[in-house]
Every structure is written in C-alpha cells, then in structure tokens.
Specification:
By secondary structure, the protein is of the alpha/beta class. About 25% of the residues lie in helices and about 25% in strands. The chain has helices at about 30, 90-100, 115-130, 140-150, 165-175, 255-260, 265-280; strands at about 1-10, 10-15, 20-25, 40-45, 55-60, 65, 70, 75-80, 105-110, 135, 155-160, 200-205, 205-210. It has a five-stranded mixed beta barrel. Residues about 180-195 have low confidence and may be disordered.
C-alpha cells in the first residue's frame, strides 16, 4: 500500500491512504540504512486487519523543512501577528531564509490585522514589495480567510511563526473544525506551546503542518549564499563586482536600491545583521 505520513507520535506513524488512516511502525532496517521516516513522507507500507502495519519504503523527498522536521512541503506560510505577541522582523526574515534555503516557496499571513491597521498595512507593504504573496487576516473577517483558503488549495503547507501568532486559529478557520489553540499569557505575551507532536491536518484538498512555535533560529548556511535567499536582490544584479555581497563593496546596486526606497530598509538591515552573524560564526 502507498500513502502519506500525516502524524508521528511516540514512535508510531499514522499514514493516510485513500480515505483511511493506518497506524504503523518503521521497520528496524531503516536504522541501518540511516533513513528516518518523517511526517510528510510518501511511503510504501504493509497492513493487515487487526495487526500493526509496517513502513517498508520511503520515497524520495522533494525537500525537508528542518524546524519542525517535515518533508514534501509546497509552501511555508509565515504567520505574523500584528500584536499579542508583537512581531519581530529578525525572526520573520530568518524564517524566510530558512524556507528559501530548503527550496520551499513562501507566503505571508499578517494576522490580527484588525488590532492595529497601521502596523498591518506597513507589514503588508514591506513583504509585498519584497516579492511575497501577502494576506491580511482577521478571524472575524470571513472574506480574508476565504482568500487565503483559495490560495492554499491543492498544497501541502507548513505554518510557521512564533507561539501565539494564531496559526491554530487560522488552521481551524480554513479546515472548518476546531484545532487546539493556546491562550496568550498576559504576563509574557507569548503563547503556550499547544502542539505536542508533528502532524498534518487535512481537509478540502489542503494539507497543513501543525507546527510548534519558535522564538529563535540558527541558520546553517554560508554567508556567501545568504544574498540568494533575499529574493528582492535578484532584480539588482548590476553591481560593480560580480561577487558583491552588498555589504561594504563600492558601486553596489542593492545598496543604491535601498537608498532609493526600491528595497525595504528593514529587510536590508536584517540581511546585514544575519550576514555578520554568519561571518562571525565562520571565524570560530
């Protein structure tokens, strides 16, 4: 039988095949082959009535998202809360770099936009101008949710963002069923982690990875690669030097575009910060 792993918990793999879900384990020989089945994998498995099934083959993956560890992702939807908790540009841009590095397309959902329209509009401007499909979302605005739902049709999507961003709320609205939602602590303004395992939630031809929130990211890339993951830089390739890193080099087209307002300043400042962070790590 062939299916997709939609849930991993306690060493058990739950596989969706057709309209049914099968509980399975992985064969012991996977350890010797250094293959670890993960959520999102398309697999071959054996299953008999009233017995535990076993995964026998993992098909090649088109990509892997490392935090959380999921495979075959079509889209990373980065959910940015306007407030409660307040958004963090550095975390957003590092998450984008991580997804781009894995070859995963990115879209932006600016959530709780009704709480601060000015901030929401500014966030939309920054990320739309940087080349990302961007949505303004409010749980009380059915039209905004339906626009996002239409875009996600036929895709396997990893919802990314800090705890309390509203990923579970948006998932519930898109799938038309309740998903556990953590309340935001009044003291810390951080959402409690409500996702205790990695799982694909599905419905209406949309597959969503229900992912734990996170507050920091360590990027595992070379500093010279970083410019490739800021997509808006690609429109400004006529720098004086072909290997320009857009930091201190003279006659840099990217720096000029920032000065002219053609590249968002917040994105460029974060690029420089991440570049120097990667540079310092490489020196030790």
């Amino acid at each position: 039988m062939i299916g997709k792993i939609i849930k991993l918990t306690g060493g058990f793999y739950y596989i969706k095949s057709g309209d049914k879900i099968f509980e399975t384990r992985a064969r012991g020989n996977f350890r010797h082959l250094k293959v670890e089945p993960i959520v999102g994998d398309d697999v071959e498995f054996k299953y008999e009535e009233k017995t535990l099934g076993y995964i026998e083959k993992v098909y090649p993956r088109k990509n892997i998202l490392t935090r959380p560890k999921v495979s075959n992702v079509d889209l990373a939807l980065i959910v940015i809360p306007v407030m409660d908790p307040k958004y963090n540009f550095m975390i957003i841009d590092k998450t984008i770099v991580q997804a781009e590095h894995q070859g995963i397309d990115v879209a932006i959902a600016i959530n709780k936009c009704d709480l601060n329209k000015e901030d929401a509009d500014n966030l939309e401007k920054i990320y739309k101008n940087s080349g990302f499909k961007t949505f303004l979302i409010s749980k009380d605005d059915e039209k905004s949710v339906n626009l996002l739902k239409k875009y996600l049709k036929g895709k396997t999507v990893a919802f990314c963002g800090v705890s309390g961003a509203g990923k579970s709320t948006i998932t519930s609205l898109i799938l038309n069923r309740d998903v556990e939602v953590g309340k935001v602590s009044e003291k810390t303004k951080r959402g409690r982690h409500t996702t205790r395992h990695t799982e694909i939630l599905y419905g209406d031809n949309i597959y969503i990875f229900d992912t734990p929130g996170f507050s920091s990211l360590k990027l595992d890339i070379d500093k010279e690669e970083l410019k490739n993951y800021f997509r808006e830089f690609k429109d400004y390739s006529n720098c004086k030097f072909n290997d320009c890193n857009h930091i201190k080099e003279p006659k840099c087209a990217v720096k000029y575009a920032v000065e002219k307002g053609q590249i968002e300043k917040s994105r460029y400042e974060n690029y420089k910060y991440i570049y120097n962070e990667l540079k310092e790590r490489g020196e030790y």
